Amino acid sequence: MLLSVIGNYSLILGLIMGLIIFYFSAKNFKNPKLLDAKILSFTFLQFFLVVISFLCLILSFVVSDFSNETVFNNSHTTKPIFYKIAGTWGNHEGSLLLWLLVLTLFILIFLVRTKNQPIKYRILTLVFQQIIIIGFFIFLIKTSNPFNFIYPIPTEGLGLNPILQDPALAIHPPILYLGYVGSSIIFSSVLAATVLNIVSLKWASHIKKWVLSSWIFLTLGILLGSIWAYYELGWGGFWFWDPVENVSLMPWLALTTLLHCILVLEKKLILTSWVIILSISTFALSMSGTFLVRSGILNSVHTFANDPERGLFILIFLFSLIFLSLFIFFYFHNSSKNNANNFFWLSKETAIIVNNWFMMYFLSVVLIGTIYPIFLDVLSSQKISVGPPFYHKLIIPFLIPFLLIMAIGPKLKWIKSNIENKIYLILPLIISIMLSILIVKNFSFKFLINTILISSALYLFYITLRDFFSKGFKNLAQNIAHFGFSLLILSILFNNLFSTEIITNLKVGETFENTKAKIVFEGVSQKEEKNYKSIVAKFLIEDSKGKLENLSPELRIYNQPNIATSEADIKTTLLSDKFIVINIVQNQEFFNVRYQVKPFMLWIWISVILISFGGLVSFIKKEYEK
Amino acid sequence: MYGRKVKLRFLFVVLILATLILTVFLVLKSLEENVVYFQSPSEIKALSELDKKKIRVGGMVKKNSILVEANEVKFKITDFKNEISVVYNGAIPNLFEEEKGVVVEGFLKDRNLFLATKILAKHDENYMPPEVKEALGD
After folding, report:
1. Is the pTM higher than 0.90?
2. Quick one: A170 and A154 in the same domain?
3. Domain end marker among A384, A409, A434
4. Is residue A231 domain-resident?
């Protein structure tokens, strides 16, 4: 009760702080000799107030204060303490408060860490960031206040959806939001730089760290979500082209493109318009991601919440921000000082630009696939869905040139280049092609496309691998990230090609057998935990080579809310995963059994970690340059 | 005739336009082929001819209609006006239950029989797919 009051007033005070900062910034902007110390203290105070508010919400969850509506809707006394805390951001209100927390934290870090930047630029960035922050404050207080009271006070909460009670998903939102919200700083900063006309090499070098850090977090956030979907949803896949996944992939694509443009801009004053547009789109996509997930507009198998009023608010807010930024772009941006004339076809920047085009193409495919059903529904009230074949068909063929350019591009020099050591570039290509023919040979279906795909991925793999030895620590970050990407594509391809699956319905004691495996359903036992009961099944699986494996998937029935979830049992080895999941239908005696062998699963995760590690290396290098 | 710079610019514009047109063409073509339409049991009854394309059907799982056998699951989907039998072999999501909303994807055998290739999972016991809500209607 008390906690909610404190939390609520902290929020309102935080909003007022935003307005005060606005006032002082305007005053300071007219007379910009020194950054007004008051601005810094008020920004700190604002952050501090949001922290208090956030802590109040966490505490309300920990002590199960059911007078708070958010706690009542999403918690339960029997829930383990870890999930009580994680439940704070496992819902709409709490996750928005987390957004706000990160927003205020980042602007504080920005102010503290940019002492050697022009004062006008710092103030303007702060102002743009405050517009976003104030918008979120109003949104939070007006439409989704996490501190609403319920009276009479309920004695027990409704509980958190059990599939969200999972360690990976507990840290997935904060990590993802660090990525999303990091793009807000890039957005504010690019607008400020455009107004002051300082989008330059120096600016690029300074903003690069922000781009890198949000990119790292976004990459890891997506990875966590994907790992969770793999073992928790029981489908045995890691990416379903589901709208909720797509909305996190889109800012990632935009951010990756932006990162590469910044690399160019660091060296040479071209692509300034591109950088501005990409920064704006990245943030717009991050925000619309939140909007699409939270408004319930998306017809998604993941949809958790649904409230049109909230959707409308974010939509209006988003459009005003986009309108503001477009106005600033067209009014202030002058691209005449670009030195685009000394530009040659065969150069590193050409390679980067071409691949940027590809990434923009991938982005538009995902965007259209995600929003086309919404538009069709609004326009003709026809219900459709766009499935994986759409994305596969449009994206996979273009991965081939994309991978090849990724391999060759870093070999080129800036501005003008000749291909040196041709033999070292061509030889690996021939080896890759031969090797992939060997691999794909036994699979007659889609022979050509698979061979070419694997060849190009293998090619990138070789080239980047060789660079580790031949180039030493030069361009290490790029090398690691590109190597990781080749590994990712290879693992996904092999995973798709060589996965096998058996789906059958079995009674206890029955055996299923085909050429690939023999599945013996040995028995079931029961287990009782604090907040769920579970049925543990015991399977003995014999693969075609006669290797035996015991697997025990679980079926949990949670008390509150009363939901059954399947817990897959996964045996992970370096080369492949054995995945089994069971389900029971309407208390009939058959169990629905799904058994999969998924090669290179582990490598998919490792390669994504490698990719983000490449970003980290670049970040650390940047830090040491100073 | 023209300077190198102008030629370069021109080539660039042509390239961008070509890419754009190609993108739009590819995307539209692929959309047309890969879109999956949603239909309710009543809409299927009213179909004048059967479509060979993949579709989605949604509604309520009829009470006492689920029958599990060794290699398949049979059940009926109803929108309280009409119903359709579904035959499915594949993995069954956790929240698949009688008298709960469901969406299945697959092919129509005839107006009364649907061969499902996928039952779509939901993550929330209270969540009702919007199509189902609409199909069940008033």
Report:
1. yes
2. no
3. A409
4. yes
- Decide if A312 touches B, using CB distance below 8 A: no
Q: Do A386 and B31 touch (CB under 8 A)?
A: yes
The whole domain housing A194 covers 166-409
> What are the mean pLDDT values of chain A's consecutive 10-residue runs (626 residues total)?
91 95 88 80 96 96 92 87 89 89 96 90 94 94 90 85 83 92 95 92 93 96 93 82 90 96 88 92 89 62 54 85 93 68 73 92 92 81 83 92 92 73 80 85 76 92 88 83 96 91 90 90 90 91 88 87 85 92 82 92 96 96 81
Given the cut 0.90, state whether the ipTM is greater than it: no
* Contact call for residues A57 and A146 (beta carbons, < 8 A): yes
User: How near does any CA of chain A get to the CA of B111, in Å?
Assistant: 20
Task: State the DSSP string of B47-97.
Answer: -SS---S-EEEEEEEPTT--EE-SS-EEEEEE-SS-EEEEEE-S---TT--
Q: How near does any CA of chain B get to the CA of A561, in Å?
A: 8
**Residue A242: its chain B contacts at CB < 8 A?**
none
Domain count, chain B: 2
CB B131 to CB A383 under 8 A?
Answer: yes
Q: Of B34, B98, B120, which has the smallest distance from its Cβ to A301's Cβ?
A: B120
* Contacts with A565 from chain B: Cβ below 8 Å: 94
Residues B11 and B54 in one domain: no
Classify strands B35-39 and B55-61 as parallel, antiparallel or unpaired. parallel
Q: Are residues A583 and B66, on separate chains, in Cβ contact within 8 Å?
A: no
**Residues B15 and B58 both lie in one domain:** no
Q: Are residues B16 and B80 in the same domain?
A: no
Beta strands in A484-545 (DSSP E): 500-506, 511-513, 517-528, 532-543
Which residues of chain A lie closer than 8 angstroms to B73, CB-CB? 505, 585, 592
Q: Are residues A369 and A515 in the same domain?
A: no
- CA–CA dist A530, A532 (Å, integer): 6
Domain that holds residue B54: 37-136
